[in-house]
Write a structure and sequence with these properties.
Layout lengths: L3 H14 L1 H12 L11 H10 L4 H8 L3 H13 L3 E6 L2 E9 L1 H21 L5 H17 L5
Length: 148
């Protein structure tokens, strides 16, 4: 027995989750925010905004990159003053990546741009449908196959 709804959602999610889809979106969202903020470094900034201070290894697990890649991208962001490294108070041998105020501003700007793009794409929808979509998507994310 097939589940056409499940297949339709899975296909749409596959398109959304493609690396090329995310990379293209990140390139658009980071345009003009400075040389260090681009489609490659944005996941590091955004991930740190979600997790708070953490090690490169922990951040890598959060954003789906290896520690070495996170470290290289963090170097660029640190040189630009968007993040800093601090000793881990729980383990002085370890280093935490921490967003600076400028890094937080960059994340805030990209998230505002994303929200505006989403609003624009929903502008032709009836307002009740857009609100229902937002509510149902949140429920799906919280209770669906991606939790945990």
């Amino acid at each position: 027995m097939t589940n056409p709804t499940g297949h339709e959602i899975a296909e749409a999610l596959g398109l959304l989750l493609r690396r090329s889809t995310r990379t293209g979106l990140h390139a658009q969202l980071t345009d003009g925010l400075g040389e260090a903020v681009d489609e490659l470094t944005y996941p590091v900034l955004s991930g740190l905004a979600r997790t708070g201070p953490c090690s490169a290894a922990d951040l890598g697990r959060e954003i789906g990159l290896d520690r070495t890649t996170v470290t290289r991208r963090a170097d660029r962001l640190e040189e630009a003053g968007l993040l800093r490294r601090e000793a881990d108070p729980g383990d002085r041998r370890a280093t935490l990546l921490v967003l600076t105020d400028r890094g937080q501003d960059a994340v805030r700007a990209t998230r505002q741009r994303l929200a505006a793009r989403i609003e624009d794409s929903l502008a032709s929808w009836p307002a009740d449908d857009a609100r229902a979509f937002a509510r149902l998507l949140r429920t799906f994310v919280d209770e669906g196959p991606f939790q945990g």
